[in-house]
Amino acid sequence: MSPFPQKAEGTANVTSITAPSVRSAAVPLVVVIVAGCIIAAIGNGIRTSFGLFTLPMTADLGMSREAYGMAMAIQNLAWGITQPFAGAFADRYGTARTVAVGAVIYALGVVLMAYSQTSMMLNLTAGVITGVGIAICSFSVVMQAFGRSVPAEKRSFIFGIATAASSFGQFAFAPIGQGFINAFGWQTALVYLGAILLLVVPLSAALRGRTEAAPGQADMPFFTALRKAWKFRSYRLLVTGFFVCGFHLAFINVHMPAFLVQCGLTPEVGSWSIAVIGLFNIAGSLLSGYLGGRVPKQILLASIYLSRAVAIGLFMLFPVTEVTAYLFAGAMGLLWLSTVPPTAGLVSVFFGARYMGMLYGIAFLSHQIGSFVGVWLGGYVFDLTGSYNLVWYLGILLGLASAAVHLPIREMAAPLFRPASLQPAQ
């Protein structure tokens, strides 16, 4: 029987490629999911708290917003560049050891960030080291373990659960991070956050195992699989559209707290706005995972990007107050990581679980290039004009463009990933 569903080209919905076999000792599914969700919450929660350090660090170290933004931009780019290789490593050698190594690197980067006195050091510690660590223990790698452990028809919902867990981390760590800063100062706060990251190491044991190729399908080298995947037009469109998601998230996460202070609000409003995004994203991610199994994923993605453009436009239209800040945070929270379940789901539909870590990692690289541009451009435009408005307006245009890019995507398996014996005769 073919590992690909036999369905006519152009059909809107298909089930994914049959799950390949798994090389691992038996671990109860509930243990895998709970451990993976805690890892996702810790990793994403600490990462999304870095925007809270913008004002105290730049003030104390005499740095410009652009310098701090550059370090965060390098972090996102290092994360994106590393992600496909982290995914490929986990595909081949196992999720547990990958996540454990990543957690140690991530913790090291955060702790060294506390002792970075120059922009060059910050680029290395908060940028390169932390970015590499985030990639290796990110929820993208966690989703690989989920993807190989559950039936294809339930993957979208499980991906939603993983994304919701990472969002809960954002909700939890925003006030925790601000509390640490207020009580101990920003340097000690970073050390404490680095120590918390080490909890990921023992939790990673529950994710042991790796994904095997489907019967009749030989393993392909990294660049061979990537070359075949890139020939699939729907995958290219998906990768292109994901750039905009990264632009929105990174700009808002890093610069919104400072933007709200510039508008006359307190730093606490900024931290709670980030927390509200995380809280509402729990619902948004779960809803997205649920809908991703019931409506065409490309339509769902186009709707999310269009809604983001509308939300940003309304935020710019009205005066910025505590009420409008929290309303905007709630709206963006519903749309925040809701792109991840259908995006990961489409990659799974296109290529199956065997190459999901690597090929979702390529899509995520596009996301992180968008993150790099969003974070850096926010700081650059502020230093140049004294305002973030140009970047907000650019975010509206990019949201509209991404909605248009996703519409032509076709939810179907990529024929080049069928076993050679099942390829159509030439």
From TrEMBL:
It holds the Pfam family MFS_1. Gene3D superfamilies: MFS general substrate transporter like domains. One of its GO terms (molecular function) is transmembrane transporter activity. PROSITE patterns: MFS (PS50850). Keywords: Membrane, Transmembrane, Transmembrane helix. SUPFAM superfamilies: MFS general substrate transporter. PANTHER family: EG:103B4.3 PROTEIN-RELATED (PTHR11360:SF284), MONOCARBOXYLATE TRANSPORTER (PTHR11360). This is MFS transporter.
